[in-house]
Design the sequence.
């Protein structure tokens, strides 16, 4: 049985945190403190906001329109940082583990990262995913959802020291990242669920996302029956 | 960061005047100033020197400007696409191709875009790379695919898409056709069909024929003409690996693969992206180019004058 069917993301997070080196832990604490200090989460879309539409390519270069996706079914948009981040990989695998449940709820789910080139394709192969992985080329979607930040110099130095070059991975001269966030969007483009957490090691449990989608489906059914009366 | 803050900063960057920028954004000047200040706090420094007669961008402002311009252009392109769709507008897209770049590379990306941009009207222009750069800056060409380029102006965004090698194209009846690869001595003895104005020619000459020019008996400025000549047994065509071939021809590797080149995407910084251009750039930067080459060496990175991507042994992207 998959690890992700027996462990919650929270449990996996604790395991991953326990494995961090001293330098990684220090960089993590420093970055999260800074993100909280600048109150980065307050800029993100909130429940009731209208989500801006986007048109982004997937890992194979095929375009996906958020407008089309949300019109045909509830849409889950989850921003992740990249294939280099173990917490993101845990989240993607956990989402993959419940993909069939999203399908049975007739929900479209897309995961969005700033990575370009063949990186999304590689990650898809590596983690054996059949999620729709979109590349937020040039960060337009992350900015419009209010989840993008510029990587501070100390963090940049730490990641660069590990051999990660986000400029190269994103095809951009500036180092930008999204804070991981998950949004549930209804057919009119209204945000019905928003999970935005500056601590990038904390992700929304897939069961919570599924519950949010079920709630949305329930309220839409009620709206439909009320309008029939 | 928030979209409106980015919009305010870009308005100040283009006007260098807070009053005019506020008018452009349809907000009061204090609101605009506050928005820019918040963005500065988040980005970790001043973006604009505010001097009475001499408002100008700081180094940080100059550094983040191209990326923020592209991000905003991208979000606006999505909105404009919806409007174009409603109003059934024509969506022109002029793509420049260097002589050694086949249009076959962009057929699938264009077909993908047409699903979302119904009014798409594509024009392809073939010009030498340096001329394409001029046409980009003049606004005559929206985007270009080129091979090697000596120098790109600062205002040009430049992404390396993939690397490819050069191959020898010849008829199956050619005396060298049954070899597993063409040796350098044999290549120097063979008749090479000469493509006029080929942007790869200088590299061929430097690496294949450093001591004496190749034997040229036949010439054309059209790749297809040369392929027909090669099929008729007139000689060998040197071509980039992605080039589609007539079915009557075969491609052989050249000993040691001495000639590699990057295929690159060029666009002008700071221009308003049309929905078609925005979609084209996005799709091309994600495409699996290894489909066109024997050895997948997809290498997209944003090239700046000073940086080349470091090689990280732990990163599978470099394998």
Sequence:
């Amino acid at each position: 049985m998959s690890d992700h069917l027996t462990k919650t993301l929270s449990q996996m997070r604790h395991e991953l945190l326990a494995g961090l080196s001293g330098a990684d832990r220090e960089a993590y604490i420093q970055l999260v403190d800074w993100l909280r200090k600048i109150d980065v989460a307050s800029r993100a879309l909130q429940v009731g906001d209208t989500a801006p539409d986007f048109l982004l390519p997937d890992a194979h270069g095929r375009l996906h329109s958020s407008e089309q996706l949300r019109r045909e079914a509830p849409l889950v948009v989850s921003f992740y940082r990249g294939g280099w981040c173990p917490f993101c990989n845990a989240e993607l695998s956990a989402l993959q583990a419940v993909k069939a449940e999203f399908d049975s709820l007739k929900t479209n789910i897309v995961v969005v990262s700033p990575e370009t080139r063949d990186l999304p394709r590689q990650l898809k192969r590596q983690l054996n995913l059949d999620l729709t992985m979109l590349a937020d080329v040039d960060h337009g979607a992350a900015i419009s959802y209010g989840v993008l930040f510029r990587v501070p110099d100390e963090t940049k130095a730490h990641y660069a020291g590990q051999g990660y070059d986000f400029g190269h991975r994103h095809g951009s001269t500036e180092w930008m990242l999204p804070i991981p966030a998950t949004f549930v969007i209804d057919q009119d483009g209204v945000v019905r669920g928003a999970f935005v957490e500056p601590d990038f090691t904390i992700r929304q449990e897939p069961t919570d996302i599924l519950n949010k989608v079920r709630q949305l489906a329930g309220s839409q059914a009620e709206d439909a029956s009320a309008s029939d009366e | 960061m928030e979209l409106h803050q980015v919009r305010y900063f870009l308005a100040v960057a283009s006007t260098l005047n807070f009053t005019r920028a506020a008018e452009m954004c349809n907000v009061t000047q204090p609101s605009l100033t506050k928005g820019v200040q918040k963005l500065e706090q988040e980005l970790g420094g001043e973006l604009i020197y505010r001097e009475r007669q001499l408002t100008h961008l700081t180094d940080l402002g100059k550094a983040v400007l191209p990326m923020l311009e592209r991000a905003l252009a991208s979000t606006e392109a999505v909105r404009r696409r919806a409007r174009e769709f409603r109003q059934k507008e024509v969506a022109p897209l002029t793509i420049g191709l260097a002589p050694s770049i086949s249009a076959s590379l962009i057929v699938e990306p264009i077909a993908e875009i047409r699903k979302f941009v119904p009014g798409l009207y594509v024009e392809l222009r073939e010009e030498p790379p340096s001329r394409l750069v001029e046409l980009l800056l003049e606004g005559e060409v929206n985007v270009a695919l080129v091979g090697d380029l000596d120098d790109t102006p600062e205002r040009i965004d430049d992404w390396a898409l993939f690397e490819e090698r050069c191959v020898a194209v010849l008829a199956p009846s050619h005396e060298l056709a049954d070899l597993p690869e063409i040796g350098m001595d044999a290549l120097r003895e063979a008749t090479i069909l000469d493509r006029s104005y080929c942007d790869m020619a200088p590299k061929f000459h430097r690496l294949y024929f450093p001591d004496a020019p190749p034997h040229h008996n036949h010439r054309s400025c059209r790749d297809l003409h040369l392929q027909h000549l090669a099929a008729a047994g007139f000689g060998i065509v040197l071509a980039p690996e992605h080039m589609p071939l007539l079915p009557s021809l075969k491609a052989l590797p050249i000993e040691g693969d001495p000639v590699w080149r990057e295929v690159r995407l060029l666009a002008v910084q700071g221009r308003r992206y049309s929905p078609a251009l925005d979609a084209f750039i996005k799709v091309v930067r994600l495409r699996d180019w290894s489909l066109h080459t024997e050895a997948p060496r997809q290498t997209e990175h944003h090239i700046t004058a000073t940086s080349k991507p470091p090689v990280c042994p732990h990163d599978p992207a470099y394998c």
